[in-house]
């Protein structure tokens, strides 16, 4: 079972990552977000930052739908994320190895081309 500390450790282990000040966690590469805490919004209530749920960049709608349909207890979305290449990940449903794969994939999709090659150098 992963948690917010695991997200932070995995994200900060990647090259060129910046953590944005937040009530939860919020990580960027090349000024583009790739994983952050879920800002839950309920009608008539204040937004609540959920650090037990990560929002992940997934690249495109096909990948989003594959995750949502393939693992509906792990991934979900809300109407406010319709049309966006983002899914919410219930951290308690993944281990750190799977979390690292998901966060690294999100990083790869968001990193600018001139930074993306540094991941391979970083892994050596």
TrEMBL record:
Pfam families: YjbR
Protein name per its UniProtKB record: MmcQ/YjbR family DNA-binding protein
């Amino acid at each position: 079972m992963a948690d917010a500390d695991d997200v932070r450790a995995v994200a900060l282990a990647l090259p060129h990552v910046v953590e944005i000040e937040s009530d939860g966690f919020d990580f960027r590469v090349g000024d583009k977000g790739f994983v952050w805490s879920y800002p839950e919004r309920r009608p008539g209530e204040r937004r609540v930052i959920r650090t037990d749920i990560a929002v992940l960049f997934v690249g495109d709608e096909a990948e989003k739908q594959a995750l949502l349909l393939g693992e509906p207890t792990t991934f979900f979305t809300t109407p406010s994320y319709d049309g966006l290449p983002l899914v919410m990940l219930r951290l308690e449903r993944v281990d750190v190895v799977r979390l690292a794969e998901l966060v690294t994939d999100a990083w790869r999709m968001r990193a600018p081309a001139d930074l993306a090659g540094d991941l391979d150098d970083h892994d050596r």
